[in-house]
TrEMBL record:
UniProt record similarity statement: Belongs to the class-A beta-lactamase family.
PANTHER family: BETA-LACTAMASE, BETA-LACTAMASE-TYPE TRANSPEPTIDASE FOLD CONTAINING PROTEIN
Enzyme nomenclature, EC number: 3.5.2.6
Reactions that this protein is recorded to catalyse: a beta-lactam + H2O = a substituted beta-amino acid
Keywords in alphabetical order: Hydrolase, Signal
SUPFAM superfamilies: beta-lactamase/transpeptidase-like
Chain segments carrying region Disordered: 27-62
Signal peptide: 1-26
Statement: the UniProt record of this protein carries the keyword DNA-binding: no
One Pfam family matching this protein: Beta-lactamase2
Name of the protein in its database record: beta-lactamase
Length: 369
């Protein structure tokens, strides 16, 4: 039996023996100091140059030189007094010939009547579904398809919307004069032109008084029926007719400058003259125009859109007056051009007048970039 003293002695000696069997720790080596790191260079960030803004497809202040040259040749080769204006609606350049001179508008002036009416619709003074009564005493002269229904019925009622459609798309003179009366007469249209600052654009007294004055006649309501106006005009002495026509061409009471019309079309297209709804309505009507299919429209390429308004004046012997077409050409990429061709007087036959206009619209499209 192991005594308590022996157990105590063993418990003390056992840890000492175990510690003697373990290797003594190796002496610590001095830790070498790390080599000093080089001081990093101070890098100053260089700002990236701003990305250059894309250049416009064309200089917004200058028309293409080749376009100007070709328009000049078209204008130079055509006999008579001709005005041409082309304005890039989305770029603001304008070019042409006789830009600021007076030219007779004839039915081009129906545009200002339509705008005056739509301006009053926008202000709540008129409604598109509002009806207008048209009787025998309201009939006009020359082209007026609505006349047959008035004569057949004694009187008819037409909505303002319907009259606008007939005045713009079919150039109906009675429809236009009925709108003019509804708007408040020539003074209302002149007020619209002045208030909207449309520039060098006049408005005449309405179709009946305008056409009789050009012919050297005083208006009589019976002239609105059949060919009575033509018969009465033919009975006038040639000298009287010529003097009246010459006076009109020298200072047209319904005159306008080509650049003023191009500017007005541009502002219409940009929505600066009428409400969005009225702007869409009028532009759509212009694209439905049936008159003058062989004028500017015939030179507009496939894939382009075109809305326009024609105007045609009286003729005395070989001299034709007021042969016009104005419109908005829209390229497939959406770029728009206001195009105006106005012939004050010419001896060129109708096919030549049409060919000249077609050459203008074709040239505009050819130089679109």
């Amino acid at each position: 039996m192991v005594s308590p003293i022996a157990r105590l002695t063993a418990s003390i000696m056992l840890p000492l023996l175990i510690s003697a069997c373990v290797s003594a720790p190796a002496p610590q080596r001095p830790v070498p100091k790390p080599a000093p790191r080089p001081t990093p260079a101070i890098v100053v960030p260089v700002p990236k140059p701003a990305a250059p803004k894309p250049l416009p497809a064309q200089n917004s202040a200058q028309a293409p030189a080749q376009l100007e040259a070709e328009l000049h040749e078209i204008w130079r080769a055509f006999p008579g007094k001709t005005g041409i204006a082309v304005q890039r609606i989305d770029g603001q350049w304008v070019t042409g010939k006789r830009l600021g001179e007076w030219f007779p508008q004839q039915s081009v002036s129906k545009m200002w009547v339509a705008m005056t009416i739509l301006d009053q619709v926008d202000s709540g003074r008129l409604r598109l579904d509002q009806t207008v009564r048209i009787g025998m005493n309201d009939l006009a002269v020359f082209h007026q398809p609505i006349r047959e229904r008035v004569v057949a019925n004694g009187a008819i009622e037409e909505s303002i919307s319907s009259l606008l459609e007939q005045a713009i798309t079919a150039s109906d003179n009675t429809a236009n004069d009925s709108l003019l009366r509804t708007a408040g007469g020539p003074a209302a249209v002149r007020n619209f032109i002045e208030r909207k600052q449309l520039g060098k654009i006049r408005f005449g007294p309405g179709e009946r008084l305008l056409q009789s004055q050009i012919a050297g006649m005083s208006w009589q309501q019976e002239y609105s029926l059949g060919r009575r106006f033509y018969t009465a005009r033919a009975d006038l002495p040639y000298e009287r007719r010529k003097a009246s026509l010459d006076a009109y061409l020298a200072d047209p009471i319904d005159g306008a400058a080509p650049d003023a019309i191009a500017g007005a079309l541009s502002r219409l297209a940009r929505g600066e003259l009428l409400s969005p709804a009225s702007t869409r309505l009028l532009l759509a009507m212009m694209e439905r125009t049936k008159s003058g299919p062989n004028r500017l429209k015939s030179g507009v390429p496939a894939g382009w859109r075109f809305g326009h308004k024609t105007g045609t004046g009286q003729q005395l012997e070989s001299v034709s007056t007021g042969y016009n077409d104005i419109g908005i050409m829209t390229a497939p990429d959406g770029t728009r051009y206001a195009v105006v061709v106005m012939i004050s007087s010419t001896t060129a036959p109708v096919p030549d007048r049409m060919a000249m206009m077609q050459a203008v619209s074709r040239t505009v499209a050819a130089h679109h970039r």
